[in-house]
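Incident log, support desk, overnight shift.

02:14 A customer reports that sequence design results differ from what the structure should imply. Their input is reproduced verbatim below. On-call engineer (initials T.W.) acknowledged and began investigating.
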């Protein structure tokens, strides 16, 4: 023990050069020379890999063993014959990959090997190799683990800049869809969905192309930016008309914060008069509770709005209505159970809705659920999810599980076992809500899980041979002293690409492009403005006392004039907490708006005169509302901002003029969605027309 302590003490007290000599017996410059020689030998004699296309192996073995009857025994994985179509396809992909390799060397000269990049960085400022984390584009399935010694200084990682590419209209469109939005990949025009810069598009092999996202999806997913991409109305109608000739179910997604404006207009003529519909009210987690039974009231109002919009012409079109939250998982399991037990395998399922209704989030949640075939789940790309409206540009899909009695029984068993745990969590949330009163404890939440549908015999076989179905993954280990400890196994199984031929008899779930409705002002806003108006959590209604002759500004996108009434009234704003609200006298309103539009006072819209000129001017319309006893008489929807509930004394009529950009998205709703507005009213804030927020209750 004493000898070990002595060795450790000497190792930590000697100089680094002496430590290197103690470990290797050679000075550092000799070791570096040997490493350079080894790298040179590896370049001259590269290691063999198993990346050779099947067609090349097939032809090589056939030529080398011509005349032998059992030549294919040398390569058991090679098929004994290929059809004409398979041969043509394999040769086409081989030619495509060879051209891509040639283009990569010419078009992407900056994509050098990892060793060359490291050497270049070291020449610039002497950074050690261990300071840079290795992450090659062509080895994204390898996990890199970096180790640092206590003596090593932490330095900033050097980022190799990416190139900014150009379009090439001469290159034909590919048949590979983007995994984020479903548009076919190409490099012809950056304004068309599915665009990838030509330098990368022409350099990608078929396999790399199948795993790629278009430039628009990458910008939204990783940088929260959006490119200007347009989809023609004609193309959308052609996609939706496919449903008319198909025996399919349509799931209509409606944003509960903007119900009437998010219902797709003139939809039944496009899909057929007798089409079955499920109405999905999304974002229920954002709706605050005003009284017991408020969810049933929301569901009833949702049905009435859909029927007034013409979605139930026969009286039997609407088969089911449910309230969910794709973000928190609330209600998702009930929706899946209803689809599996009622619709079953009667036909395909189409997800339809306006932009920003949450379709892509629902699609992603269903992929990671029992509704998707388990052997396809890990090979499917997820739909792009972003604050930007219209993230899905074409049809994304996944195969639906076959709901046999065994599968349904296993699923119901899992849900039954999970119920006590969920009930316990709900009780804990209620206790926290009573104690702390925070919004997160009042938010509706749920859980979307995956059932293991394996039989007892299959589980028993896996227990007997646990290594049979494991996928091997390679690891690259690197240490701070530039020594590679282990390069892992050469046989690394990458996640396979999705093959539709394996699911020919399956029914499919489709995510369609979002409809851009001119009644929704979110389609007029920039990224920064969207971040201001879209609520990120439970909406906390704000109550204001309004007198006749006063004007309320809701950011720079809405204005409410209380023209006349016999008494004061309460305006309850169901909008995002960060949206500014200002109350001024009517004679000061115009000057206030001109002075503060485009500034931090009103916040949205943001920018100079050129930006403000792109937003339509505020145009008003008038409403007369008669009060009811002790509850809100009506709601006035302010397009995508939210809505305002108006409470007047019983029998008293109020006259209100409401302004929105271009007079779009503004309508009167009776009865109101949340009539018990006094549940949100706290004490009056002295010297202001605003009331404090009332503590949330279970």
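02:41 Re-run completed on a clean worker. Output:
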């Amino acid at each position: 023990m004493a000898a070990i302590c002595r060795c450790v003490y000497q190792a930590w007290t000697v100089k680094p050069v002496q430590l290197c000599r103690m470990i290797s017996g050679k000075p550092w410059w000799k070791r570096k020379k040997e490493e350079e020689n080894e790298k040179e030998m590896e370049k001259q004699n590269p290691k063999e890999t198993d990346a050779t296309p099947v067609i090349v192996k097939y032809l090589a073995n056939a030529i080398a063993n011509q005349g032998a009857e059992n030549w294919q025994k040398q390569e058991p994985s090679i098929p004994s014959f290929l059809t004409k179509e398979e041969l043509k396809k394999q040769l086409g992909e081989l030619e495509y990959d060879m051209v891509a390799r040639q283009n990569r060397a010419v078009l992407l000269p900056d994509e050098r090997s990892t060793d060359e990049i490291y050497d270049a960085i070291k020449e610039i400022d002497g950074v050690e190799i261990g300071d840079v984390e290795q992450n090659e584009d062509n080895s994204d399935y390898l996990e890199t683990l970096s180790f640092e010694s206590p003596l090593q200084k932490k330095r900033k990682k050097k980022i190799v800049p990416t190139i900014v590419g150009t379009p090439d209209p001469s290159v034909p469109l590919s048949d590979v869809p983007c995994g984020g939005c479903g548009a076919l990949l190409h490099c012809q025009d950056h304004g068309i969905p599915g665009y990838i810069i030509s330098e990368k598009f022409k350099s990608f092999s078929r396999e790399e192309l199948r795993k790629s996202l278009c430039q628009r999806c990458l910008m939204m997913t990783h940088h929260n930016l959006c490119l200007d991409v347009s989809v023609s109305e004609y193309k959308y109608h052609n996609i939706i008309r496919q449903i008319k000739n198909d025996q399919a179910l349509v799931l209509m997604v409606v944003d509960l914060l903007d119900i009437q404006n998010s219902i797709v207009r003139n939809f039944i003529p496009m899909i057929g008069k007798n089409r079955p519909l499920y109405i999905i009210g999304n974002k229920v987690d954002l709706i605050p509770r005003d009284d017991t039974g408020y969810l049933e009231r929301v569901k009833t109002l949702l049905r009435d709005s859909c029927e007034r919009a013409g979605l139930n012409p026969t009286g039997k079109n609407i088969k089911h209505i449910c309230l969910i939250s794709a973000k928190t998982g609330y209600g998702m399991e009930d929706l899946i159970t209803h689809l599996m037990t009622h619709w079953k395998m009667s036909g395909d399922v189409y997800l339809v809705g306006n932009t920003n209704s949450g379709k892509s989030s629902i699609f992603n949640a269903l992929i990671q659920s029992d509704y998707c075939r388990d052997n396809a789940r890990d090979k499917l790309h997820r739909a792009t999810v972003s604050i930007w409206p219209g993230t899905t540009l074409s049809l994304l899909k996944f195969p639906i599980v076959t709901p046999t009695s065994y599968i349904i029984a296993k699923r119901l068993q899992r849900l039954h076992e999970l119920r006590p745990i969920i009930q316990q969590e709900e009780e804990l949330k209620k206790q926290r809500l009573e104690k702390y009163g925070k919004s997160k404890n009042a938010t509706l939440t749920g859980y979307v899980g995956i059932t293991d549908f394996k039989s007892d015999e299959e589980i028993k076989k896996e227990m007997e041979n646990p290594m049979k179905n494991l996928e091997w993954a390679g690891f690259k280990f690197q240490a701070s002293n530039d020594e590679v400890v282990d390069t892992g196994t050469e046989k690394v199984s990458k996640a396979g690409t999705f093959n539709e031929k394996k699911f020919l008899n399956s029914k499919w779930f489709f995510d369609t492009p979002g409809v851009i409705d001119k009644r929704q002002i979110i389609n007029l806003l920039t990224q920064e403005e969207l971040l201001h108006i879209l609520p990120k959590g439970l909406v906390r209604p704000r109550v204001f006392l309004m007198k006749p002759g006063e004007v309320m500004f809701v950011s720079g996108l809405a204005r409410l004039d209380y023209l006349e009434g016999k008494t004061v009234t309460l305006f309850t704003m169901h909008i995002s907490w960060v949206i500014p609200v200002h109350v001024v006298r009517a004679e000061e309103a115009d000057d206030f708006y001109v002075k503060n539009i485009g500034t931090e006072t009103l916040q949205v819209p943001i920018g100079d005169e050129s930006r403000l000129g792109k937003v339509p001017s505020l145009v008003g319309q008038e409403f007369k509302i008669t009060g009811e006893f002790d509850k809100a008489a009506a709601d006035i929807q302010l397009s995508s901002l939210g809505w305002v509930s108006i409470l007047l004394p019983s029998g008293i009529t109020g006259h209100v003029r409401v302004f929105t950009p271009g007079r779009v998205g503004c309508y009167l709703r009776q009865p109101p969605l949340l009539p018990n507005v006094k549940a949100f009213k706290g004490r009056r804030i002295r010297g202001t027309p605003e009331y404090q927020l009332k503590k949330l209750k279970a």
